[in-house]
Structure formats: C-alpha cells, structure tokens
Amino acid sequence: MSTRRFYALLNPILYKRSISQRNEGYTIEWAAMNVSAPTTRLILKAGAPPAACGGEPWQPFALAGIHGYSEITRLLYEHGVDPCSINNDWKNDMDDGNRENREEGHPLSMPASHGHVSVVNLLLKYGMCPDFTIGHNEERTSIHLAAKNGHLDVVRMLSDARSSINAQDGNGTTPLAFAAWNGHLDIVQFLLSRGADPNIATEHEGTSLCMASHSGNIDIVRCILDHGATPNPSYPDGQKPLFQLSRAAQEGHEDIVDLLLSRFDYVKSFTKPYQQAILCVAALTGRTTLLTELLTKQNYDPNMHIAVDRHIHIFLRYKSLHQPITALGWAAECNQPAAIDILISHGAIITSPICISPDNNGAGIDTPALLHAIQEGHKEAVITLLAHGANPDYLSEALLTAITNPPIFSLLSHKADPTGSLPKSSLLTYAVYSGNVDTLRMLLDHPKATELVMDSISAETQTKRR
C-alpha cells in the first residue's frame, strides 16, 4: 500500500478521534492560523463544529480574518458561521484570559485592521455592514482601523462599499484624523478626494490638521490645508488655543510652524486673550521678530496665561513639572534666552503668583520660569533668568530640581540657601539618594554645610519617630 493511500485511509480516523477527544478546536485553530484549507476541510467533514475553539483567545472564523486566509473564511462560512451575527463576540469562551490579546472587534474589523483585502472583500459579499462598530466604548468602524494602520486598498474597498468617510469613534476621531496622526499620506489624499471633512474636531486632540501638525508630516499638513482645513482658534470649551500651531511648535516642527504662519493671519483673526497663544509659540520657537511685534505693535500682554489641557493627567512629583502657561515659561522650557530678554524687558513677571485665569477656562498652576529651565537642564536660560533677578530660593525648589544637573546646581548654589525647608527631608538627603557625587560634594563644600548636615539628621530622626 502506498504512503498516500495509507494517509487517505488514516486521516478520517484521526480526525474523528480528535473530535471524540474534544480536540477539534485545536485542529481548526491550527488550520486557521497556518493557511491549511485541506486540514480545515477534513476536520469539518469529520463533523467538527465550525466554531470549535482550542487554546487561542478567538474563534476560528476570527482567527482566519486576523491571519488573512480567505479560503478558510469561506469554508467556515459554508459550514454555518454567520459573520453578521450580533450575538457573537467572536471570543473563545474557554480562554482563561491570561494570554496577551491585543486584537479587538469583529470578523470585518480584524482583517481590515491587518490589511487583508481578500478577506474584507469576501465578508462584504457575505453581507457584513461596513460600518459595524467594534465593542466597548471605542465605536470604531473597520475604515477607522484600516486608515489608522495604513491599509489604503482596504480603505478604498470599504469606501466603495459606502462606509461612512466621516464616521467618528467614541472620541470623535475620524478615519482622516487617524491617517493624519499616523503619517499615512496616501490615505489622507484618498479620503479627502472622497469628501472627508478636515475640520471635524475630536474630543481631546483637535482636528485632523492638529493631528498632522503634531505628528510632523508637512506633506500631510499641506494636503489638509489645500483641502479647506481652517485653524481652530480655540477648543469649544476654551481649551487648546491655536492647537495645530502650538502642538507643532512644542514638538519642534519648525517647517510646519512656518507653513501655518504663512497660511493664516493668527494675529488679526484671533483677538480674544485665550486665542493669543501665538505669543507662546513665538517665545518657545525663538521667533524674536514676531515676539517683539506682538508685544510692541499688537499690545499683547506678556503675562497672558494660556489654557492647559485638563484632559491629560500626568503624575507630577513637583510643581515645576507642570506645563508652562506663560510665554516666559515656554521660553525657559525651550531654552530661548533672547526671548526671555525680550519678554522681561516688556514687563513679563519672572516669578508670577499661582493663579486661575478667568479668561481661559481652567488655566492652573503657573510654575516660575526658572524651575522650567532647571528641570530641562537649560544652563543658558538659567543664567539669563538669574541675571534678571529670578529668585533661586523660590519655595526651596530650585536647588532640589537641579540636584541631578551639577553645572546648573553650581550656578544656583552661589545664590540659593541650601538649608531651606523641603517636604519630608533635607536637600542633603535628597542629594544622597540621587547618587550624584558632584552635587553632594558641592553641598558639603558649602559654607552652610554644617547646618545642612544637622538639618538632615534632624529630619531623619523625626521620620523614624513617626
């Protein structure tokens, strides 16, 4: 008997044995993940349920979509799997949940997310709605996922199937915004050619123009501008003033800042205080000519506070880590000594009080510019601010913030008092825990070293008593 004949007789027996041992799910899973249509066909012929699961987190039909095997998708469909079922979450109910599972969605969204055109085409023929959303609170459609991951052919196919070009997910994000954020120029061009609206704003990130400006692809920014994108002077709740301009500036995308400034007259168009974030943009990018013009000819307030994003929460150990809300703070944060000089000469307050501004609906703590410069390690900005009279003893934080930067610590130690009160401990203790030998040596060489050591001992004693 030939080997081929032997296997032809043995295989049906083995597959029936697999089913009797309830292992058919593992067989179908293996076939779905390894493009083995013959194995799928044989195990189904032996009587295995098409939705039988093994050890994978998803049912075989979903696995075939994830891995892009249209032939297996067709076989499972022909054996009774309904891809349009709204009562199926496509997960393996036997899965213990311990395996890492980054997939999400339904039979159409999964192959769309991975760019499997043949499977997407097949499922659309089976009647799947192109705008069926994935679960949870994201409410993303297949075209969202395809645009996000850069699969132009899938985006085109879904668009041809009348998927909504301007569909918004749970955060208000459109397919165009996803493509812009992730740098997919070809998809941005295609969606705009199909009528995508570039001025739809998301809940937290602004419009597609804002996302493109942040991601740094100037070709995408230019493309969106050429299709009617307009600057949003502020977010609906007063947050994120001139978001597309300020985000590009913060990320260091100078070419995009130049492009936006050439396309829009931010000075004449936006006159309310919370819309004048261009002052901060000029400061943080070192555009001294623009900065001087805003202060002298346009009468911008050098101490104007811009809004901070209350939707983004970051664990902050010290107040000095808060995002700047003044032009001077941004100039210090980005090491722009010339901008610092200009702002202070026009009345910018070096150490402004903590306040809440009524004009911008939520601006919060205003950290002194000196602390921003120290935190970022900008020696030039620190020297400039000290020359203008910045207080190195502000809440005793300046030296504490500079512990890991000996050159800046050296500058401050000539003027600051190292014995100032600090929360829970002394400056010497913080220096020891930082492991920075140079900083520790400077403290021990300081004229107040003895007092500093005694303060440290006292602080440690009080801590132990607690």
TrEMBL record:
<protein>
    <submittedName>
        <fullName>Uncharacterized protein</fullName>
    </submittedName>
</protein>
<dbReference type="InterPro" id="IPR036770">
    <property type="entry name" value="Ankyrin_rpt-contain_sf"/>
</dbReference>
<keyword id="KW-0040">ANK repeat</keyword>
<feature type="compositionally biased region" description="Basic and acidic residues">
    <location>
        <begin position="92"/>
        <end position="106"/>
    </location>
</feature>
<dbReference type="InterPro" id="IPR002110">
    <property type="entry name" value="Ankyrin_rpt"/>
</dbReference>
<dbReference type="InterPro" id="IPR051616">
    <property type="entry name" value="Cul2-RING_E3_ligase_SR"/>
</dbReference>
<feature type="region of interest" description="Disordered">
    <location>
        <begin position="92"/>
        <end position="111"/>
    </location>
</feature>
<feature type="repeat" description="ANK">
    <location>
        <begin position="138"/>
        <end position="170"/>
    </location>
</feature>
<dbReference type="Pfam" id="PF12796">
    <property type="entry name" value="Ank_2"/>
</dbReference>
<feature type="repeat" description="ANK">
    <location>
        <begin position="171"/>
        <end position="203"/>
    </location>
</feature>
